[in-house]
Amino acid sequence: MDGKDQIIRLGKLLAEEQRRGCDDRAVNGGLERFLTAWRMDAGMALRYEAVQQALELLAGYAVLDQATRRARVGIALESLRSLFRAQPNPQPAPVASSAMPTRAPTRRASRPDAPARPLTPDSPLDDVPGITRQMVQSFRRLGVRTVRDLLYHFPHRYDDFTSRKTIAELQPGAVETVIAEVLDARTLPMKSGGSRLDVLVGDETGTLKVVFFRQPWLAQRFLVGTKVVLSGKIGVYDGLRQMASPEWQPFTDDDLIHVGRLVPVHPLTRGLVERSARALIKQVVDRCAPMLEDHLPPAVRERTGLMPLPQAIAQIHFPDSRDMLEQARRRLGFDEFLFIQLGVLQRKMIWQAQRGYAITRRDDVHEAFLRRLPFELTGAQVRAIEEIFADMARPVPMARLLQGDVGSGKTVVAAAAALQAIASGYQAALMAPTEILAEQHYRGLRALLGNVPVPRDQRQVSAEDDLDPEQRERLEEIKRILGMSGDDDLDGRGVRVALLTGSLGAKERRRVLEGIARGDIDLIVGTHALITESVQYAALGLAIVDEQHRFGVEQRQRLKDKGYNPHMLVMTATPIPRTLTLTIYGDLDVSVLDELPPGRQEIKTRWITTVERDKAYRHIRREVAKGRQAFVICPLVEESEKVDLPSAEEMHATLSRDVFPDLRVALIHGKMLPREKDAVMIAFRNHEYDILVATAVIEVGIDVPNATTILIEGAERFGLAQLHQFRGRVGRGVHQSYCILVCDKEQNEVTRQRMEAMETISDGFRLAEIDLHLRGPGEFFGTRQSGTPDLKVAQLTDVRLLQTAYREAQKILADDPQLERPDHALLRAKMDAFWVETLQAG
Ligand code: ADP
Ligand code: MG
Question: How far is the CA of 805 from the centre of ligand 2 (A)?
């Protein structure tokens, strides 16, 4: 059945929507947006009446009432299912010919296998003349299903075969292209088995030997007297110049595809042969790229001077020159940046078009808070707090990112913000990525807020004087559960902080949930549990999310959805260069804590090689003898990888058996359950162990002030930002602390520079920028971040292009915030499709 995959995709989504009770949330942005994007890619699927009917039923979905939605989704699903029942054995798609032409594609008009249907960007790949079933399947594995997909399946590199010479001019060592006639060709057996084809070619200036190994079929192609084009490196063998296994194609009047140009190398998979895939792509690009409609409004194209879309697509596949390739990349990279910027700016506009709670600043409460702090705020903390208070005072929901290196004091800032919300009669919630971090925050926030009295006069529910006995009773019980003894209570004016974790008993949990729903509890700390159905807030005024990069956009949205429109403060210690911030967190305003509290010790950082491990172990032994503790970090090693790196398990075995048999060595790794990990972490924090061997799981900050050494194995495998995060695990107490990086010297120059940067630089932001510069954005994060768009062409380091896209997005949205104008329809559909893909992948 044509378009089967698209129909299944639609069906799956509708089934999910049905399962969720038709709340229009099965996909971000709502069903209608999804459908707009889906239509774009639907291709042949749109030809079915059943599909048309389903689409008609779902028109205007957002404004339908829930009952109508349920009915219509039900019918639409039935309609789609009927397609599969009527055709239990879907017809095989038409295949024009079973094999690729062995020659490069020739004059189109004369093709014997010209397609019955005209080929368009929406055609399924099966319609491409000459494609085999196997190729269709292989492309499908790459996510390429339609002609349009193939047009957007870009080369990952180019071989430069542009330098064309005569044979006399060929220089050994250079990569060159020659056009020559076959003078002689003979097949010879090789000692190692198989055969070799020796070809002698010549032009007016001389002769050249060309050899191919183990490709016996080539003998029929190199017939004496035919002309060929050869591209490859010139070698020397027995004192004579020769080409070994060059790229080649017969010399015809046709385009050069494989030789004599910038030759594209496309990402391939099993079942796809480079030459035939390239020839197929050339055919499709020539025929269909000109049919692409440009989604950029003419005004944008004029202002930016970017290449038109059809040309950019043609040039990125088969560039006429380096310069054209660069221009094509710029244009397509711009598109990606623009989609991102339009998306995030729109999200921000929609978010901030809602009414929020204007929380009027209570200076008396803030000053009481400052008076009780055991330290002075840093300048950066003061600035961030001012920015946050200003946001919260507006009747628009805040969306702010608080970015600050490990130890820069984000918790105090969060506490000050929470206090303002609470003083105005609202609740605040803080969501952390793990239970142990939630617990740590809980203790930290209680210490900071526990002795600050808040005015209760604005509280509707729990102004204690006019409580009836039953309410009073309930409140007493909650305070008992929260561990608020008489003093903490501050005559009913103490901040009531609850930790909502799995360790609460069922009855206590019920009481706490009740307390949250009634507004008896001011500040709730927990994990993802805070956004589950069972938690209802009385008046959530501020939602704080710690370590944002662990949360997706969706979860952020869900937490937001719990209150009506709470102010949102997102905190991260990941030092992300400014340019990336604009992309990834473009929908957030940013406050940066770029200053550490005074008196922080520098963590002594040394890079050693594997043979020097013993020195490091002696150091750890000395520290343990002084009563300190140490972390040993091992990179995650895939079983398939052939590397000399010990896994955490192996390291733990070696250390506990051979190196430190007399010390207490614990192990924590990614395959353990969260509960088990937390148990080990707590035992380590309580000094039941001297050494903790861990995989990257300890990255997220737990406080163990007594740990003074962190040794990192396979240090070259981590990003500098991540190494810096690891390093932040020590130096949290009063003792001098150390970071030891282990990796070998024979590593390349980049590794050497990165290790030296770690030794000499202690500023996380600078390290992140250096890493981005040295390794590029692909490796910057190590793994893809949830909700991070997947960029095919755009370079995150290209700040100028990013800023151009940002400006253009603002201009476009200023005139047409919803992209409703007809001349923006295509842009909007493209942007939606881009985000649908991103959100599904993320
Ligand atoms: P992070 O930004 O990594 O979350 P924390 O909020 O945990 O940092 O703060 C780290 C430590 O620094 C805490 O012990 C905190 O009490 C302390 N701290 C925060 N701000 C200051 C300051 N202005 N002066 C001194 N110590 C501070
Ligand atoms: Mg923190």
Answer: 33
Pocket test for ligand 1, best of 411, 702, 730 (most atoms within 8 A of CB): 411
Question: Residue with the nearest Cα to atom 4 of ligand 1?
Answer: 410
3-state secondary structure 543-577: EEEECHHHCCHHHHHHHHHHCCCCEEEEEECCCCC
CB < 8 Å & 24+ apart, contacts of 606-611: 606/738, 606/739, 606/740, 606/741, 606/759, 607/715, 607/741, 607/742, 607/743, 607/755, 607/756, 607/758, 607/759, 608/740, 608/741, 608/742, 609/742, 609/743, 609/744, 609/745, 610/644, 610/742, 610/743, 610/744
Residue 429 located in a structural domain: yes
Query: pTM score, two decimals?
Result: 0.63
CA–centroid distance, 664 to ligand 2, in Å, is: 28
Higher pLDDT, 624 or 679: 624
Which of the four pLDDT bands, split at 50, 70 and 90, describes residue 615? very high
CATH at residue 190: 2.40.50.140
21-65 pLDDT tens trace:
888 888 888 888 888 888 877 877 877 777 877 787 787 788 777
Domain at 467, CATH number: 3.40.50.300
Q: Which residue has the tokens 């459908």?
A: 35
Among the listed ranges 159-173, 283-297, 379-393, which one has the minimum average pLDDT value?
159-173
Residue, of 619 and 527, whose pLDDT is higher: 619
> How many angstroms is it from 579 CA to the middle of ligand 2?
23
Ligand 1 atom closest to the Cα of residue 377 is 23
Residue 629 covered by a domain: yes
Cα angle vertex 718, ends 716, 719, to 5°?
A: 110
- pLDDT, position 115: 41
Q: For the beta carbon of residue 83, count every other beta carbon within 10 angstroms.
A: 20
Does position 93 have pLDDT exceeding 50, yes or no? Answer: no
How far apart are the C-alpha atoms of 464 and 491, rounded to whole Å?
9
Tally of domains in the chain: 4
In this structure, the answer to whether residues 416 and 530 fall within a common structural domain is: yes
The label of the residue with tokens 């491990």 reads 613
pLDDT digits (tens, 9 = 90+) for 689-742: 999 999 876 554 577 899 999 999 999 888 888 888 889 889 888 899 999 999
* Nearby residues of 209 by Cβ (< 8 Å), 6 or more positions away: 198, 199, 200, 237, 240, 241, 242, 243
Domain range for residue 681?
604-761
